[in-house]
């Protein structure tokens, strides 16, 4: 850029506005160019997503728990939004630092580009060719930066006759780049969405199991009082995973590898699984991250093949004590073989439909009685029989438990906390669960008084939640009620509060509300 030498230093300094525009557009161009190429190659190779996913994996467990607790299922959106905000600030600062010289901007672009390349190279769900996405991202970022910086410098040269032309040229080019950024971003997203999981799902049609789950009796929930309905709709089923974008795995492309301590290694396609004898089972799933009184518990009619049947041909060697499963995105999970063979399911359907994409389409594991992080691998593509001593799973490496049977818990759904109810007799109602033991009793007390035994709804099976209700006569004013469940093994919930990490929260749920006079 020869004009750099011609102009005196002062007049060569880019305006604040132009330098900011240069920085921000360069970074946006880098991100969206990478997103577009990733859309063509592999959506997981988008540098923005890859860095975000890596950040999730590297996040210390307490911070992750904080995120889940405070943002729930929106934690990923919060992360992406935060990343975008930080990037825009870095971009603006890099632009402003480059008012006199190109090097700060180039250095920032190179560092960000390097991060993108490193993230894509180390993701478990990307191939080597996918590195093209962050490389093009880097090239686009540096290229747009140099180009716009050159135009901005020319527009800044005070002594040229053509300054106004140069200014206009900078403006138009910036606008053009902004449009390009929008097109690349939207295009990349459309391409990523284009791997048509929905078409693959609907091509499967209704799943008809050989044995249906028994019908849910009308008396199984107290939904009219404010408990959840017994069967959670697919849309309302809680969702927990480490992913920014749901894997787009089509049933046509699906292969499950079964290997390790088996007599014969197996490769099963979706059609192979579907042709096995399908059963339907009503199961309540629970997340270990659920706080006392929390929402991460849901019930579905899962359709699938008992894992025992899936493994019959493979022949599991008796020495193996862990089923180490891996999802298409590289998340891993270790499940005790005894539980897997006793009651594990390779599920392909939920409530009569193929699994929704976010719940593991086309196939996932479900093992009643174990928290999801040690049993419920979604988008499962690899199952290896080995020993717990050999291989550590995703959450175990991050300080969570190795074995995590679901703890007996109960929750008050009504009255809603801090609400005003009554006057008259107050109905307290909620749910309790203790898969696979089953619930024997739920008790409620008000204001630390005597425990009152609640009425239990009809039991569906011992691997599902159980609704309860009780009527209390309470004087007008503020009250606190607590609940505790006893399972069929005779264990009554302890009042001792422990947090979810490492293997599930304990303690009694309590709710405060006001009774009207
Ligand atoms: N591939 C994959 N499978 C996963 C997870 C995950 O992060 N990735 N999370 C697990 C956890 S912690 C739980 S509680 C359940 C939740 O299943 P759901 O989202 O269908 O409710 O999925 C499990 N399976
Ligand atoms: Mo979980």
UniProtKB/TrEMBL annotation:
Xref: InterPro entries: Ig_E-set, OxRdtase_Mopterin-bd_dom, OxRdtase_Mopterin-bd_sf, TAT_signal_bac_arc
GO biological process, one term: sulfur compound metabolic process
Source organism, top-level taxon: Bacteria
Pfam families, A to Z: Oxidored_molyb
Gene3D superfamilies named among the record's database cross-references: 2.60.40.650, Oxidoreductase, molybdopterin-binding domain
GO molecular function: heme binding; molybdopterin cofactor binding; sulfite oxidase activity
Domain Oxidoreductase molybdopterin-binding: 245-395
Transmembrane regions: 21-41, 77-97, 104-122, 128-149, 170-192
PANTHER family, sorted: SULFITE OXIDASE, MITOCHONDRIAL (PTHR19372:SF7), SULFITE REDUCTASE (PTHR19372)
NCBIfam families: TAT_signal_seq (TIGR01409)
Protein name listed in UniProt: Tat (Twin-arginine translocation) pathway signal sequence
